[in-house]
Amino acid sequence: MTAIRTIRLLGAAGLEQDTRPLEGPPAQRHRIALLAVLACAWPRAVPRERVMALLWPERDATRARALLNLAVHVLRDALGAGAIRLHNGALSLDPAVVRCDVVEFRRALDAGDDARAAACYGGPLLDGFHLPGSTEFERWVEDERGALAARCTRALRTLAEEARRREQPQHAAQHLTRLLQIDPYSSRAAQALAESQETAGEL
Questions:
Q1: String of b and e for 63-86 (b: at least 16 CB within 10 Å)?
Q2: 68 phi and psi angles, rounded to 5 deg
Q3: Domains of the chain
Q4: With helix as H, strand as E and coil as C, how does 147-176 read?
Q5: Fewer CB within 10 Å, N or C, the chain?
Q6: What is the pTM of this model?
Q7: pLDDT in tens, 82-125
């Protein structure tokens, strides 16, 4: 039976094999960061020079390339030989080999499956994760984290509106509660939640 390997990046980051944590060398910070860069770019590939600049800005090109090659080797060994692909000097993630919550989240959104997307969203991208020495990576994470959170709030707002149209205020309240956990300053969502809770209390 083939092992199921999973990359979790939404919420606390980590690697799993058949639901058990994969620890040690594959879970080293720069390797998790590499997977995040590739997952957020999917289905596009990322030039090696871009990855090196994000993850090892303080290293010269020779040393950064060696560290990247080692990271790819370790991750392929842990996640499957085809998990990370190299073509014309660019790297990409293959979700046919390894599962990734970011990829599944984006696929669900692209398919119009907001419920599935909301279920995939386990929290902010790389929540609590830091890569010392790379302010460029930190800026990249903030941008990607904000973009993914915004897409999830839109999905939850759509789900809440659909639930209200179906006269299911309790379901609407559940979606709006999650939305406010992501975007606590949304006055529109807060008002809609209060209205849904009031309606649910009348049923």
A1: ebbebbeebbebbbebbbeebbbe
A2: -65, -45
A3: 5-104 (1.10.10.10), 105-202 (1.25.40)
A4: HHHHHHHHHHHHHHHHHHHCCCHHHHHHHH
A5: N
A6: 0.92
A7: 999 999 999 999 999 999 999 999 999 999 999 999 999 999 99
